[in-house]
Design goal:
By secondary structure, the protein is mostly helical. It has 22 helices and 10 strands. The strands form 4 sheets. Strands 1-4-10 form a 3-stranded antiparallel sheet. Strands 7-8-9 form a 3-stranded antiparallel sheet. Helix 1 packs across helix 2 (34-47) and helix 7 packs antiparallel against helix 14. The longest helix is centred in the last third of the chain and has 40 residues, at 433-472. The chain crosses the membrane at residues 72-92, 135-156, 168-188, 200-221, 233-258, 287-308, 356-379, 399-419, 439-455. It catalyses: a quinol + 2 Fe(III)-[cytochrome c](out) = a quinone + 2 Fe(II)-[cytochrome c](out) + 2 H(+)(out).
Length: 618
């Protein structure tokens, strides 16, 4: 049983009065905001969204051109959703047979599927239909290439490290789903080119041992091509995969908000802050403008460059194949793998044909590549023993082994991609297709090794150059002659801001080998894994160029105070005059206390005059 009691105003305590004052202040603020403020206040009182919105509006994002690659992918996805919705109003996802009597005269009287006829009508009869179709197709290509380049940026800068391993895996899933979504999309029109691709996909499924034929019958609803595949592909393309992709994209953005955005090394940038622009109003205005730039360029390309003119290919017929047909570029590496795999991988065993020459390239390649990429962050963390959180990105040159491995993978991908055009190269260059194929087969194994070695050597050379520049300054190209006839080159010292990115990185040492048995002769637990870890650590960090330390910089500063360098010191003093505008022998002579302090403290150098905002962890 509940009872109600009446409380007089004079009986209210201080907390009650304070709550009442807060409500009055909110009401006054809502009135001062006019109709918009009243609506916002009404919405906040019922949802409590003001706190979350306030948090988002104050979120700081760093400013660098490479971060726009992820934005391009997001904006392309928005364009795909908008144009895809438009196309669904006219597209008929049916393989039912009809006779074409539309506006395109060359196809009149030809039997085709309803899907193909509706696509031709969208292209040639619906006002603006062809432009929207082409925007949709170009946006799909841009979406995939933007995700790919974004993933490259994340890998080469080490943005996948703790706490972003989950976001890295989400990105890989988005990348793989984008490939499948693209294939499903360009298969829907049921023209001769897309039908050839579907026929190839069915052959890939049949190459799976034991269960291949069951998978094919399940997806196609019987024998190829059947009449079920178009409606099923339509459902997957417009409902299932978009829902998963949008969900993963949302999770990706939420994790970016939770973890903070990564940023490149620079003065005042640490693992505990973000230097950049707040979401409102600067970043929102810039992002909004960039969205319209992406949309505008996509529309411009779509209006000027024709892609996938399905009316020229004609409807799909199982007895015909489009001459010189090639898959969309993002499936080129898988097609190239099929062309390079040797024929002896197909053999008969136990009364069954095992087509590994097809299955390895068409079925196993993509999962294997994506699995290796997904495991890599955890493998690197295990090898290095690094369990710290990382919000500052690496310069690729400062992680030479990782950069070399990335370039090796890119070379492997590139060789497979070029192999997809071995027939076209043979025709255009008047070469033997067998010779081209054999060379590319060798390059699959040789190319990644060479790319790794060359890339790692280049990274180490660049690190040595950075080290020399920090200690001795930039070469000016001016040669100074002393009264005694000696010559010196004038060097310009680095300021503290330019010096910072060249010295703010870790240079881990290889782990020491731990004997498999202890001093009592007892085998250590996990000795085998420890041995492997030691070998991998040596592989990663044996060749390294340590960053310049404050002590080294200070030593370089005092180097010319030695009596043996008195003459050089005199020339250095001369070079400080206005007519020289620099100094000699490397710039380390002018290291001041502020420079050394900036090497010692990661938080120095931001200053109050920066045009950026700084978001700091409390």
């Amino acid at each position: 049983m509940t009872t109600e009691s009446t409380v007089r105003p004079d009986q209210l305590g201080p907390e009650s009065l304070r709550t009442s004052d807060v409500k009055d202040e909110k009401a006054a603020a809502a009135k001062s905001g006019g109709a918009v403020g009243s609506v916002a206040n009404w919405f906040d009182e019922r949802t409590g969204a003001a706190g979350g919105v306030k948090f988002l509006m104050k979120k700081v994002f760093p400013d660098h051109w490479s971060f726009m690659l992820g934005e391009i992918a997001m904006y392309s996805l928005i364009i795909l959703l908008l144009t895809g919705t438009f196309l669904t109003f006219w597209f008929v996802p049916s393989a039912g047979h009809v006779v074409y009597n539309g506006d395109y005269i060359p196809l009149r009287g030809i039997q085709m599927s309803e899907a193909y006829r509706s696509t031709v009508d969208i292209s040639l009869s619906v006002r603006g239909g062809l432009l929207i179709r082409q925007i949709h197709h170009w946006a799909a290509l841009l979406f995939i290439v933007a995700i790919m380049l974004h993933m490259f940026r994340v890998f080469f800068t080490g943005a996948f490290r703790k706490p972003r391993e989950i976001n890295w895996i989400i990105g890989l899933l988005l990348f793989m789903l984008a490939l499948v979504e693209g294939f499903a999309g360009y298969s829907l029109p049921d023209d001769l080119l897309s039908g050839t691709g579907l026929r190839a996909a069915q052959g890939f499924m049949l190459s799976i041992p034991i269960v291949g034929s069951y998978i094919s019958y399940f997806l196609f609803g019987g024998g190829f091509p059947g009449e079920a595949i178009i409606p099923r592909l339509f459902t997957v393309h417009v409902l299932l995969l978009p829902a998963i992709i949008v969900g993963l994209f949302t999770a990706h953005i939420i994790l970016v908000m939770v973890h903070k955005h990564t940023q490149y090394p620079g003065p005042g940038r640490t693992n505990k802050n973000v230097v950049g622009f707040r979401l409102m109003p600067v970043y929102t205005a810039k992002a909004g403008g960039f969205f319209f730039i992406v949309f505008g360029f996509t529309a411009l390309i779509s209006a000027l460059v024709t892609i996938n003119p399905i009316w020229m290919y004609g409807p799909y017929e199982p007895t015909q194949v489009t001459a010189g047909s090639q898959p969309d570029w993002y499936m080129g590496f898988a097609d190239g793998a099929l062309r390079l795999l040797p024929g002896f991988l197909e053999f008969t065993l136990l009364g069954h044909t095992w087509s590994f020459n097809v299955m390895i390239g068409a079925i196993l390649l993509i999962p294997a590549m994506w699995t290796i990429a997904g495991v890599y962050p955890f493998l690197e963390s295990w090898v290095t023993g690094d369990k710290r959180e990382h919000h500052i990105l690496d310069r690729p040159r400062n992680a030479p082994t990782r950069t070399g491995l990335g370039m090796a993978m890119l070379t492997f991908y590139g060789v497979l991609f070029f192999a997809a055009g071995n027939d076209i190269m043979a025709i255009k260059l008047h070469l033997s297709i067998n010779d081209i194929t054999n060379v590319l087969r060798a390059m699959v194994f040789i190319g990644p090794v060479v790319a790794y070695w060359v890339t790692k050597r280049l990274c180490l050379s660049l690190q040595r150059k950075d080290r020399e520049t920090v200690l001795h300054g930039r070469e000016t190209g001016r040669v100074v002659r002393t009264a005694e006839g000696r010559f010196f080159e004038a060097h310009e010292p680095l300021n503290a801001y330019d010096r910072w990115p060249l010295v703010s990185y870790d240079t881990p040492s290889p782990q020491e080998y731990l004997a498999p048995v202890d001093e009592n002769g007892v085998r250590r637990k996990g000795a085998g894994a420890a041995k492997l870890r030691t070998k991998l650590s040596s592989f990663y960090f044996k060749d390294r160029v340590p960053a310049v330390t404050p002590a080294e910089l200070e030593a370089a500063h005092h180097d010319h105070h030695d009596p043996d360098h008195a003459l050089e010191e005199a020339v250095i003093v001369q070079s400080h005059s206005p007519e020289f505008g620099g100094h000699l022998h490397g710039g380390a002579e002018e290291v001041d206390d502020e420079s050394v302090a900036m090497l010692s403290s990661s938080g120095a150098g931001s200053g109050d005059s920066s045009p950026y905002d700084a978001e700091t962890d409390k």
